[in-house]
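Exercise 7. Given the components listed, write out the predicted structure of the assembled complex. Treat all entries as one system.
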Amino acid sequence: MIEAYGALLAPLAAFVAVLMAPARWGRRLLWALAAAAGASFVALWRLRAEAQAAAHAWRLPWIESLGLDFVVTIDPLSILYGLTVSGVGFAIALYAIDYFAHDKRPLKTFSLSLIAFMGAMLGTVLAGNLLQLFLFWELTSVASFLLIGFDFRRAEARRGARLAFVVTSVTGLCLLAGILLLGLGVGSFEIGELLDMGPQVWNGLPYPTATLALLLIGAFGKSAQIPFFFWLPRAMSAPTPVSAYLHSATMVKLGIFLLARLSPVLAGAPDFTPILVTIGGSTLLLGAIAALFAQDLKAILAYSTISHLGWLVAYYGIAPSIGAHADDVQLLAHVLYKAPLFMVAGYLEHLTGTRDLRRLGGLLPKAPLAALITLIACASLVALPGSLGFVAKELLTTPLKGLWPAPWASALLVALLVAGALKVALAGRLLGGIFGGEERDPADPTHASATGLLPALAIALAGLAYGLLTPQAPSPFAGWQTTLGIFVVGAILYRLAGGARGFHRWHAPASLDLARPVDAALDAFPKFCARLVAWAQNDRPQLFLPLVATSFVAFLLWRLLPFVDSSFVPGIAWGSADRIAIALLLAASAFAPLFARGNLARIVVLSISGFLLVTYFVVYRAPDLAMTQLLIEAVSFLLVLYLLGRLGERDPRIPGFEAIGRVGRAARAGLAAAFGLVMAFLSLVMVNGQTPERLGRFFLASSLPDAHGANAVNTILVDYRGFDTLGEISVLAIAGLGIFALWNRSLAAPIRRRLSESALLRGVAGLAVAVTFLIAAFLHWRGHNDPGGGFIAGLVAALGLVLYAAARGVPAARRFFSIPPEVLCVVGLALAWLTAAAPLIFGAAFFEHFMGPYGLGTALAFDTGVFCVVVGLGTRIGWALLNPSEEAEDGSV
Amino acid sequence: MAANILSLFVLMPLFGAILTMGLGEPSRFRRVLSLLVQGLVVALSVFTLREVLLHGPIVLAVGNWILPFGISLTADALGVAFVATAHVVAFGILLQECLVRSHHAEPRALFPLLHFMTMGASLAFLTGDFFNLFVAFEILLVSSYALLGLEPAGRRAREAFPYLLLNIFGSALFLVAAAFAYSTYGTLNFVDLGTRISLSADEDRKRLFGALCLTVFGLKAGLVPLHFWLPRAYPILRPTVAALFAAILTKVGVYALLRIGTNVANFETLGIDRVLVVGGVLTLVFGGLGALSRSNVRGILAFHIVAQVGYMLLGLGLGGPLALTGVVLFALHNMIVKPGLFLVGGVALDAQGSDELARSGGLLAVAPSLAGIFLVLALSLSGFPPLSGFWSKYVLLNGALAQGTLTEFAFLLLGGLLTLLSMIKIWAGVFWPHGDATPELRHRISRRTLVVPMLLAGLSVLLGLGLGDFVGVAETTVDQAQNHDELRVRGESVGEKGRP
Amino acid sequence: MDQFESVLAVGALFGAGLWFLLDGRALRAVIGVILLSNATNLFLLMSSGDPSGRAPPILGPANVDPVDPLPQALILTAIVIGFGVLAFLVVLLARNVEDERHPPESSHGG
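Answer.
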């Protein structure tokens, strides 16, 4: 069990170690990868025997609420892949240390990504739970993205990384969808349970076709099958160790792994075999043909990989029908020859400075070791009898021949044979083209040391040995007719093409390169989005409000329709005559500013509207409201008058609002009318459905006995719902902060001088203020039992102070009042805060009010806090508006 | 007495605001004080969360008046989870503000406004009263107006006034909704409202009320077609403020809907479930496409917010415990990751002088740690495992399958893809070079500016790995919020004054 | 059904308010905001029910049938908050007008 977790923990430990290590260690950081790979390999090797005996799963509870456990599965398949990943990883680490020997680029991110990748691969193959598998699957995509984009200064590398990431992520999403549909349909994500159910799984699924399609898309994307293969050749812009590791030996095998892992389940899926054989077979052929057309050595190897992946997909498609169990041979047949070939490619690139086959040649004397490795690898490529490739081929073709003439088997067999011939030609191309012929001048050699090739040699020899020693190996002479046939045809093709040189002239038409349109689409898509967004009017801020209003009107109309019925009209009742008169006047005054000429007239009319509302409040029996509205109306008038002072006769456009044309005006009128109608109708519906059971009755009953106040509105404001009032004065303070952050010397009004020139005003100013203060105090005191209260009193006092400043100037007012208003505002807020918080200290409840003797109580204290805030803020703003010598503030209140 | 602890969530930020307003200079004192106050609130919220998860909701009757006549602060797991996350993130943002500006003073109004915003957020998440929620929203909104005005770029921007006027309109509608609620059902307390609505037989009226609520809160949240202001308002803010807005402003809209959907009446009764589903899909798609259309970092991130809200609204419309758990997970995860992304954008902006993608580039070479943090946050937002975004998406997908058809399921996946594409766009624009040259930085990126984003990214990783039983907590929040009877019973037992 | 004149007034105020708000010019926007808040306050007031024949909510021995005090309290809070917003709006507009007239030195914006 320790070994199982150890295999996963080793990469994690290496990751952390490299994270902490200094970046200047450069390629020495890769030793951590080698160590981790070696440790994982050893750990997994020791589990081989156990795995052969029976599959084991170790679980850790992970996310209990979702019923997910972290499961590590050890069985022959996971051990096989695990050993491959760690073994090849070890070799690649050694290779990379040599590869980057003279490279000055920083390698810390590279090392971290590579270690993370290996860890993620191990996590995927050892996962016993589909979600866990997906987790690591996606991590490999991320690591791959970072690794391909290692040389991010080259545009090619960036585009390659982006393309690979997008394709694998999109297909990864499909995989997630497939996993979810599968797991939720079955009721569990545990692979063990799924495998036990076997083909029966498909009977219980709600969407079997979709599930299968999504799972397969996920597998095909990762393993570069048609139509997703195009990302792989572009990924060759990664450094060669990455290409050798990820894009030939491990990551691209994940799709295959998934097919192998779920093979007992997938076997029962509808149309499983035809789909896999078709896709796999056509990929097999496509890749083999394309390899002959490519000129870049790594691209050739990439297409060859694609081809072999097609083979593997087809193998798993047909394996259940032929009862094949040769996971190890099939996997290793590819890995053990492809990885060395990539490493040779990297070596040759360093040796000659180029990867282009048209400029390589005659390298046998210079690179004998490379030639040997290539020879051994090509033996497996062409399935030379005795090689591991031959074993793999035989294990597939022999049963297929037996199934002849069943349609799928036969088609696949033909494809295999054709591809075999093409591969012979390819081998000729590689060996002849690189090592044969005359030597070319090296284009741009950098240092290349043959020691880097030793890991490649080791892998190639391992392949050779495996091929000779594996118990599944058939006799080399088995099926010699087909073998011979393949070789002959391949040789003929080679000759017909004109030998290795002949292939230099082969070019595939650019239109077949799927990567280019996809790349272009990825570039163009954001531009399309921009146009879409612009069309949706997102760039015209002035339409925001109309759009919201329209949506609101439409939605409300929909919901108001049920209320339109015949009982409405006769049921309309009016109030008393005076109310009707005021209401109609009020309605008319709303429209009056439309007809007023000049800004001053408009705001005067508006004020009239406000005063009408005051009267209306009186009619509605709301004295506190009427007083407040009256004062607010006065203050608002002054405020708007101030604005008028700055605008003059103009009414400039607000930034963001452009002028509207005739159609716009009509639309605006229509919208406003509709809105007004909807709101009127809403209010009608509202008053028709009023409930008599309301909170207000409690307040009326409780105000005198419990809250010790006769003014029920005031007791609600300071006691029952004093918390609202606390918020309300906070809003005032915030507005004050905002206003003073905006403040600027030049914002003061120009009217100061004229007012203070009136001697009469100056004379009575002091007296007037004193009277105002008395009124304010009176209003404040009586508020709890009669109309009045802190807010009203505060406004009165503030008005008084502002008028004083208007008459005698702000500096005089400051001296007169002697408390800076901003301080008063903060003090008021603090007082309110104390009233709310203090009861907690004395063991009472939050904001609980207590009444003391003579009508003094915490409620009055709170109201005083409100009073102070209003006085402070009102005075501060008023004085600032009057006095240009107020310093430009930057946020002080 | 124990319930009174809830008052501290409002009292302490207000205290911080008062102190920072009153004691102007020196700037260092203000910072330390603010960090202290907010830090205490964070500790308090974590403690309260634990209490509430173990022992159920806490109800406080403000002023000791019996409910539903007084205002209640209801701390169930849902509210406290949101409060805790909001304060943790706010603390981080406050810290970032201090670390980024080590040498120059910030505007004096900034810290008081930040405190007020957290006060508004706490109030919004804890209040149990409809009109008090209005007051909370106003505190948040007016703070946001003031913060907008702090920036020269902000106040002159074409978007500032539309934002302001639109929200004034929205506030008016909120009052209309409150009036309607009181008139029709006679109460403002959420739990009581829920009881009375369930006893009422007039379905049409309930749907009318639902329409009002959806407009008001959808506007706050950013539901298409009410969302337009959002992506235009964010790019003009300084990144730390944008981060705070991202963490709080839209989430209160979603939270309010969640609260109404659980305490007051379910969305089907209110007639807004299908609207939410359709609206959610439209928002999700439009936000995703919009993100791809922008050419500056804050613009892209702002559109994401719209898309993410689409996810949440879709989940709300789908309904059912799984989908609602997914919504909670999604909201909380977003509150952590989104601000992190804005802060990273802010560091990049500071270093390169612009966050236009065309004028940035190459940060991977000079600041690989920043790139790493961005990568983690971006992947989390796109829903990559094992990050917090994955689990929230996973639960939502589960919910979609349980309640809906494959269509919503497919759209949720599409949304993830669009997010990923726009993250790649940012990566390519900011971290990868555009050509071969390495760009120049205006000044070095100092390590201290990376601390907070790194912590946020780390939090996302830890939550994704299953620490803290993220998913379990979300499930509990939904359970508690939907337990109407429990809330009512607890509400009836608090408050002494006014008992007959 | 008994407050139909209020229905008309509310509709007029909301309609006119939105009209001005949509206009796009500074003063008219302020007028719109004021009308809109008046409309909202009136709407809130209507929720307290028909006041005919009833008394203000000042309790005392003579007071037999007071109106509902809660909407009035809510309106007061709304008025105050609305006023704060209005003040901010006006100053913001003034600042903008000022900036147009005398553009400050270009500050490096975010």
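Discussion: Residues 4-57+66-101 of chain C form one domain. Residues 4 and 36 of chain C are 19 Å apart (CA to CA).
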